[in-house]
Please model this.
Amino acid sequence: MSSYDVVIVGAGHGGAQAAIALRQAKVDGTIAVIGAEPELPYERPPLSKEYLAGDKTFDRLLIRPESFWQERGVAMLLGREVTAVDPAAHTVTTADGQTIGYRHLIWATGGSPRRLSCAGNDLAGVHTVRTRADADRMMAELPGVTQAVVIGGGYIGLEAAAVLAKFGKHVVLLEALDRVLARVAGPDLSRFYEAEHRAHGVDVRLSAAVDCIVGEDGKASGVRLADGSVIPAQLVIVGIGIVPAVEPLLAAGATGGNGVAVDAQCRTSLADVFAIGDCALHANGFADGAEIRLESVQNANDQANVVAKTIAGQDAAYHAVPWFWSNQYDLKLQTVGLSIGHDATVLRGDPATRSFSIIYLKAGRVIALDCVNAVKDYVQGRKLVETAATPDPARLADAATPLKELAA
Model:
């Protein structure tokens, strides 16, 4: 049985950053990263944007080259899935039966795409976007596709729809709720993006209930809606969220449910076991202490840094301002903070110019900003969120007043 001082399960952003941060914190013990995919750690957000569009090759997505990991003595155990954790023995077991020991375990597995539960969900031509292999399969099919359906109006669905429209495909986007981005943004931003996609030829349909995927000869040929109508499609992309990949930890007795529960140092309820990233259920100070999971690179990296410092014996606690981004067409959306529970919004700038910000308030406090092609607002607005500032809404709305002047 092989054994390491630190075993990191998951070779995504969080797992890679944990290994990097451990070495930066002068932890000189043995480190192994176990990844289910055969690739070295790579950036995932570009999969539904630049990589799918062909604007970035895969080598440009690598977080670090192979030589980096070798020089720092980080063992990359790739193409292996961890299926069980024994917290008493301090071991993990992989799908091929290998047992690996650990002193500290960092769980950074993220999640798996949520699948449709309807008939036809497993037909060829039905895709999710989570791994390089997912994107490669879609790219291989694209030349034979004229009509595509995207199910889900979140970031992944909208980004994929934008790429498909760029390729000249006829795209129908289906959202079960009454607006896109309903879970992450206010109505003003939703309506702006709906209009943008329609202007680029995407058929955006809201409150659309999917009945099933129909197919011919084992391959998807369309999507049937609850009203009985069928939308023809040679390609179906499903972007309806993820399921946190924590089953082995929960089976081992870790506290959790929708993710695995962690404290301020990202410790789980199991001794010497930490969890970070998309799968970590934590009390977030920017959500008024509510227990949430954050599906973002920022969260994965910042929690990885906290764990590395904790293992190195340094004081650390997770309290980082959440931020996100999305590229669609020539629009760059940058979000800082969490708009959960906002009771007022301030529009800064004119959406007709395609450069504006929406500022979210709760009891007068600035809790989040959505900035569209407005980098200055994003950079300067961060301080407003960090300090829970309560500026005059009229001054917030005045695009001629720099936000940094309101952060004092």
